[in-house]
Design a protein that fits this description.
The complex is a heterodimer of chains A (342) and B (623). Chain A has 342 residues and is an alpha/beta fold. Helix content of chain A is 29%, strand content 18%. In chain A, the strands form two sheets. Chain A has an eight-stranded mixed β-sheet with strand order 2-1-3-4-6-5-11-7, with helices on both faces. In chain A, strands 8-9-10 form a three-stranded antiparallel β-sheet. Chain B has four domains: 219 residues, 3-Layer(aba) Sandwich (Pyruvate-ferredoxin Oxidoreductase, domain 3); 181 residues, Rossmann fold; 69 residues, no CATH class; 107 residues, Rossmann fold (3-Layer(aba) Sandwich). In chain B, the strands form five sheets. Chain B has a seven-stranded mixed β-sheet with strand order 11-10-12-13-15-14-21, sandwiched between helices. In chain B, helix 19 links the parallel strand 22 and strand 23. In chain B, helix 4 packs across helix 8, helix 7 runs antiparallel to helix 8 and helix 11 runs parallel beside helix 12. Classes of the chains: A alpha/beta (342), B alpha/beta (623).
C-alpha cells in the first residue's frame, strides 16, 4: 500500500465532489464552506467511501448531496441522533454532521446537547447565518433581539442563544469558530476539527446574502475584521487589530480588551491562549461579543475525553471477553426448564 | 422437611384460576410468579396476567395502590389467564374491594384478617367491615392472621417487626401452595438464589413460607385440598416465558441468524422498557443498546445504524410511536430496514400506562404524512412474540423497509410455557450487500420484488446519498417531477404488497370450508377467541376462528376466507379498527366486538357475542 506524502496527496478536491448541481443561492456563504471542506478532505489520507456526511433540514443541510461520500439528508433537527446510531455500529466511518442555527439549536437543540455531552466521535459544523433561509426569512435562535422579519414585524422578542457557550456548557471537548469568507483560517480550523477524537464542534459564521446580508460583516469584511475578531492560537498571546497592537487581559473576573502601550500595558500582560483551559475561561472567551470585544475565531478549547461510540463497543468487547460469544441455544433455554414426555 | 399432608379430601380439578392481590409493596407480583413457576415445573399449562398500578408506590391501603397477579393453570392446553377467579387471596381491604367482583360464586377467598383495621377499611372506602357484615356469604371465606402468624414464625430471628412483616407474602404463598398440592422446593431454591447476599432474608422468607404451609396442614381449616394434573403438552423441553422476554430473544435470534450486530435504540416507556433491560444483559451477542435522549432520537439512531449495516430496532408504546412518526416516514422514503416495536397500552395520550389495549393499529397503519405504507405484524401470544420479532426483522432486512411489530401490555407482561426451540433449526436470514456495481451505482434500482440494494458505507465506488426528498426512480437523485413522484409512490406501495407472496396464507380453526360464523382477531385476543371457538364447537355450534398476524399486507387469501361464512365478528380491544379495514377493503358486513377496559376479553364475553350473533340465548354464567 502506498502512503501519501505531504507534497503529493492521495486525493484531490474532485474526488470529493458529487455530480449534483449545487443549488444554493449565488453568493451564499455555503459555497466557500463546501470548498473548504473538500480541500480539508483532499489533504487527508482517507478515501471518500470512508466518509459519511449527515444533515438535518435547512439550506446548510443540502450539503451531503454535494459530496461524493456516503450521506444522509435526514429530518429537521435529528441528524445528531442519526449520526449517533451510525457511529455506534460503524466507528470506522468518519462522520461529519452538518447543521444550521435553526436545525441545530431550535428544533434540534435537545439532540445537539446530548450529542456533545456523549462526545460521539464526529465533526459537527453549525452554519450560523442568524436567520431561517429555507423558509424564507424568519428570525432564528441566534438572531439578535428586536429583529424585524416576516414573522416578527414589530421585532423579535427572543433573547439569542450563543452556540459556543451552549456547546461548552454541554461538555464539548472541542469548540471552535470559523468564518465563511476567511477560507484559509477556516481550512486550518476544520483540519484541527478533523484531527480531534470526539465531538468537534465548529460554529461557522455564514452569510445569507438573501435574507440576512451582512449579519457578520464585522467578522467577514477584510477592511474591518482584524479589529473585530481575534484569532486564537494555542500558546500565543491573545493579540489582534490591524496593527496587532490590541489584546486581551484578565481584569478581576472578566476579560478586557486593551491597547498595547496604553496605560503601561505590554505584550507580556496579555493572556496566553491555552486550548486546554477550564470551561470557565473558554466560556468567558466565547462570551466576547462585537462591538464591545473582539470575537474569538479558531480553536477555543480542545481536551480529551473518551468517546461514547468507543465506550459502547468496549462494553460489548468486554462482555464477549468475560462471558464468551453468546450461545443462542443457551439463551433460549435459560436456567429453569422442565421436560414433557409425549 | 416433611411435606406429608394430614389426610384430607383431595379434589382433582382440570383448571384453576387464582389471583393474588395486595398493596403494590406487598410483593404480589413475586408471589404470583413463584406460584406460576411451581405449577409450570409440575407440568401444568399456565397463563398469567399481572395487573399493577402505574404508580410505583401508591399510598398504602388505597384502592389505586392495589397490585394483582392472576394465574390460570390446567391439565390441558390453555390460551388465556382465566375468566372468573376460583381463588382470591387478598392482603388488605383495598385488595378485596377491587377484586371481589371477579371471584366466582362459592369461590375460595383467603383474607389476611390482620389488615382489616379501622384505618385500612376507611382507606379502602368500606363503611362497614365486610368480614362482619355478612356481605361475603356467597364465598368460602378463610380468615387467616397472616401478619401475626408471620411475625410469630420469625420471632426467634429477632428482626424488627416491620422487617419481619415483609415476609408475609411468602406465608400466604405457603398456604396456597399447600392448598393446591404444589411443592415448596422451587420457591425455596428461588429464595436462596434471589437473596444470596442477604442470609437474614433467606431465613425469614423460608420460615414464613414453611409456616404458611404448616398452617394449611395443621389448622384443620380447609376441608379439602386440590390438585390439577399435568397437562398433555407436546413433548419437549419447556420454560416459562413472558412476551417482552420472548420478543428480546426473537431479536437476538434474528441477529445471530442474519450474521448482523443487533442495535437497539430506545427511550424508557411502560410497558416496553423490559425489552431494553433484557437486551442490555446480552452484550456478549454483540448487542448494542442505546438509551436515547427521547423517542425521536431512538428511532433516528436506528436509521443511522441501519445505513451503517446493523439489524436496527427501536421499541416503545403508543405515545412513543406518535413521536417517531416523522422518522418512520423517513425510513419508508430512504427504504432502509429497521423494526419499530409498539407494546400497546391504553390511550389516548398518557392513558393507562400499565393496562392493555389494541388501539394503535390505525396509528401504525396511517399515522404518518404522505402515502407512507409500512408492513405491520402483531404477535398473538407471549411466546409468539419470539417468532413475530424474528419475522419482522427478516421481512424488514430482506425487503428494505421499516416494519412495525405490535404487541400489547397483556402479551408483554403475561407468561406461558414455551417449548424451547432448537436454535440450530431456526433458518438463516440471507442478506446481501453489493460490493461492486456495473457502471454508476443506482441505489434505487429494484429487483423483481421491488427491493433496492443495501450498500454499506466503506464500500468503494458505491457512495450514495439518501434523504427525505422525493427520489428519482433508479438513480435516487433529488427529483420533483410529477410523473416520477406518482411512480415512486406506487413503487413503494407495490414493494409492500409483494410481501404478501412470502407470508404464509391465513388458516382457520374450526371449519375451514365455511359456515355460520367466523370470529376474526389480531394480536392478544387470539387465545381467548381460540378457546371460545373450541368451547362453542364442543356445544355443537358452527363457529370458526381466523387470526391475522400480518395486518399489512394481509395474507392473500383473507377475502376468500371471509366470504365463506354467513356472519363475521371482529373482536378487538379497541373501538373497532381492524373491522373498519375489513369492511372497507372487502365490503363485508362484519360485526364488532369491542372492549376498552384495559383488560383482555374473557372467554365468556366472546362466547356470549358468538351466541348473540348465532341467535342463541346465552346461558346464565355458572359458578
Amino acid at each position: 500500500m502506498s502512503t501519501a506524502t505531504p507534497d503529493k496527496p492521495k486525493y484531490t478536491i474532485k474526488d470529493f465532489a458529487s455530480d449534483q448541481d449545487v443549488r444554493w443561492c449565488p453568493g451564499c456563504g455555503d459555497y466557500s464552506i463546501l470548498s473548504a471542506v473538500k480541500k480539508v478532505l483532499a489533504q487527508r489520507d482517507r478515501p471518500p467511501e470512508e466518509y459519511c456526511f449527515i444533515s438535518g433540514i435547512g439550506c446548510s443541510s443540502r450539503f451531503p448531496y454535494y459530496m461524493n461520500t456516503y450521506g444522509l439528508h435526514t429530518i429537521h433537527g435529528r441528524a445528531p441522533a442519526v449520526a449517533t446510531g451510525m457511529k455506534i455500529v460503524r466507528p470506522d466511518i468518519e462522520t461529519w454532521l452538518i447543521t444550521g442555527d435553526g436545525d441545530g439549536l431550535s428544533i434540534g437543540g435537545n439532540h445537539f446537547m446530548h450529542l456533545i455531552r456523549r462526545n460521539v466521535n464526529l465533526r459537527l459544523m453549525l452554519f450560523n447565518n442568524r436567520i431561517y433561509g429555507l423558509t424564507k426569512g424568519q428570525y432564528s435562535p441566534t438572531s439578535e433581539q428586536n429583529k424585524r422579519t416576516k414573522s416578527t414585524p414589530m421585532g423579535s422578542l427572543d433573547f439569542p442563544v450563543d452556540p459556543l457557550c451552549l456547546a461548552i456548557g454541554a461538555g464539548a471537548t472541542f469548540v471552535a469558530r470559523g468564518v465563511d469568507m476567511h477560507p484559509k483560517h477556516l481550512i486550518e480550523t476544520l483540519s484541527r476539527a478533523a484531527d480531534h477524537k470526539g465531538t468537534a464542534f465548529v460554529e461557522i459564521y455564514q452569510n445569507c446574502n438573501i435574507f440576512n446580508d451582512g449579519a457578520f460583516a464585522h467578522a467577514q469584511d477584510r477592511k474591518v475584521r482584524s479589529d473585530n475578531v481575534i484569532e486564537l492560537v494555542h500558546g500565543e498571546p491573545m493579540i489582534y487589530g490591524a496593527d496587532l497592537n490590541r489584546g486581551i487581559i484578565r481584569n478581576g473576573d472578566h476579560l478586557e480588551s486593551v491597547t498595547i502601550g496604553e496605560n503601561g500595558v505590554t505584550k507580556d500582560d496579555l493572556l496566553v491562549h491555552d486550548e486546554t483551559c477550564p470551561e470557565t475561561v473558554a466560556f468567558s472567551l466565547a462570551r466576547m461579543k462585537y462591538p464591545d470585544m473582539p470575537e474569538p475565531i479558531g480553536v477555543i478549547r480542545a481536551v480529551d475525553r473518551p468517546c461514547y461510540d468507543d465506550l459502547v463497543n468496549e462494553q460489548v468487547e468486554h462482555a464477549v471477553e468475560t462471558r464468551g460469544n453468546g450461545d443462542l441455544q443457551k439463551l433460549l433455554t435459560g436456567t429453569e426448564t422442565w421436560d414433557v414426555n409425549g | 422437611m416433611s411435606t406429608e399432608v394430614t389426610p384430607r379430601r383431595k379434589e382433582e380439578l382440570q383448571e384453576v384460576t387464582i389471583r393474588f392481590a395486595g398493596d403494590s409493596g406487598d410483593g404480589m407480583q413475586l408471589t404470583g410468579t413463584q406460584f406460576t413457576n411451581t405449577a409450570a415445573v409440575l407440568g401444568n399449562d399456565v397463563s398469567t396476567l399481572p395487573d399493577f398500578p402505574a404508580e410505583i408506590r401508591a399510598p398504602a391501603g388505597t384502592t389505586y395502590g392495589v397490585s394483582g397477579f392472576q394465574i390460570h393453570f390446567s391439565s390441558f392446553d390453555i390460551h388465556t389467564p382465566g375468566d372468573a377467579v376460583d381463588a382470591l387471596v387478598v392482603m388488605n381491604p383495598a385488595a378485596l374491594k377491587v377484586n371481589l367482583e371477579d371471584l366466582r360464586e362459592n369461590g375460595i377467598l383467603i383474607i389476611n384478617e390482620d389488615s382489616f383495621t379501622e384505618q385500612n377499611l376507611k382507606l379502602a372506602g368500606y363503611a362497614e367491615n365486610p368480614l362482619e357484615d355478612n356481605s361475603l356469604t356467597n364465598y368460602r371465606v378463610f380468615r387467616i392472621p397472616v401478619t401475626k402468624a408471620t411475625l410469630e414464625a420469625l420471632e426467634e430471628l429477632g428482626m424488627k417487626g416491620k422487617d419481619a412483616a415483609r415476609s408475609k407474602n411468602f406465608y400466604a404463598l405457603g398456604v396456597v401452595l399447600w392448598l393446591y398440592n404444589r411443592p415448596l422446593e422451587p420457591t425455596l431454591d428461588f429464595i436462596n438464589k434471589k437473596f444470596k447476599n442477604k442470609p437474614e432474608a433467606i431465613k425469614a422468607n423460608e420460615r414464613a413460607l414453611r409456616a404458611g404451609w404448616y398452617f394449611g396442614e395443621t389448622a384443620e381449616f380447609f376441608t379439602s385440598t386440590y390438585d390439577v394434573p399435568k397437562a398433555e403438552l407436546p413433548a419437549g423441553q419447556y420454560r416459562k416465558i413472558s412476551g417482552n422476554e420472548a420478543l428480546a430473544y426473537g431479536l437476538i435470534a434474528a441477529a445471530v441468524k442474519s450474521g448482523k450486530p443487533l442495535f437497539y435504540g430506545s427511550y424508557p416507556i411502560t410497558p416496553a422498557s423490559d425489552i431494553l433491560h433484557e437486551l442490555a444483559k446480552h452484550k456478549n451477542f454483540g448487542v448494542k443498546t442505546f438509551q436515547a435522549e427521547d423517542e425521536i432520537a431512538a428511532v433516528c439512531s436506528c436509521i443511522g445504524a441501519s445505513f451503517g449495516g446493523a439489524l436496527s430496532v427501536t421499541g416503545t408504546s403508543g405515545p412513543g410511536i406518535a413521536l417517531k412518526a416523522e422518522a418512520m416516514g423517513l425510513g419508508v422514503m430512504m427504504e432502509l430496514p429497521f423494526v419499530v416495536v409498539n407494546v400497546q397500552r391504553g390511550g389516548p395520550s398518557t392513558g393507562l400506562p400499565t393496562k392493555t389495549e389494541q388501539s394503535d393499529l390505525n396509528q401504525v397503519l396511517y399515522g404518518r404524512n404522505g402515502e407512507c405504507p409500512m408492513p405491520v405484524i402483531a404477535a398473538k401470544s407471549p411466546s409468539d412474540c419470539f417468532h413475530a420479532a424474528f419475522e419482522a426483522c427478516k421481512i424488514s432486512m430482506q425487503h428494505m423497509v421499516p416494519v412495525v411489530l405490535l404487541t400489547d401490555a397483556y402479551l408483554a407482561n403475561g407468561a406461558e410455557p414455551w417449548n424451547i426451540p432448537d436454535a440450530s433449526l431456526i433458518p438463516e436470514i440471507e442478506i446481501e450487500h453489493p460490493t461492486e456495481w456495473d457502471g454508476e451505482f443506482t441505489p434505487y434500482r429494484r429487483d423483481e420484488r421491488g427491493v433496492r440494494p443495501w450498500a454499506l458505507p466503506g464500500t468503494p465506488g458505491l457512495q450514495h446519498r439518501l434523504g427525505g426528498l422525493e427520489k428519482k426512480n433508479i438513480t435516487g437523485g433529488v427529483n420533483y417531477d410529477p410523473d416520477n413522484h406518482e411512480l415512486m409512490i406506487k413503487l413503494r406501495q407495490e414493494k409492500i404488497d409483494k410481501i404478501a407472496d412470502e407470508i404464509p396464507p391465513a388458516t382457520v380453526t374450526g371449519n375451514p370450508e365455511g359456515g355460520e360464523l367466523l370470529i376474526v382477531t389480531w394480536g392478544g385476543p387470539f387465545g381467548t377467541a381460540f378457546a371460545a371457538t373450541n368451547r362453542q364447537r364442543s356445544k355443537g355450534r358452527d363457529v370458526s376462528h381466523l387470526h391475522l398476524r400480518w395486518l399489512n399486507p394481509m395474507p392473500s387469501n383473507v377475502e376468500e376466507i371471509l366470504r365463506r361464512y354467513k356472519k363475521v365478528i371482529v373482536a378487538e380491544i379497541n373501538m373497532g379498527q381492524l373491522i373498519n379495514i375489513i369492511r372497507s377493503k372487502f365490503l363485508i358486513d362484519a360485526k364488532p366486538l369491542n372492549k376498552m377496559k384495559g383488560r383482555p376479553f374473557t372467554i365468556t364475553e366472546v362466547e356470549a357475542a358468538m351466541e348473540r350473533e348465532l341467535g342463541i340465548p346465552s346461558e346464565p354464567i355458572s359458578s
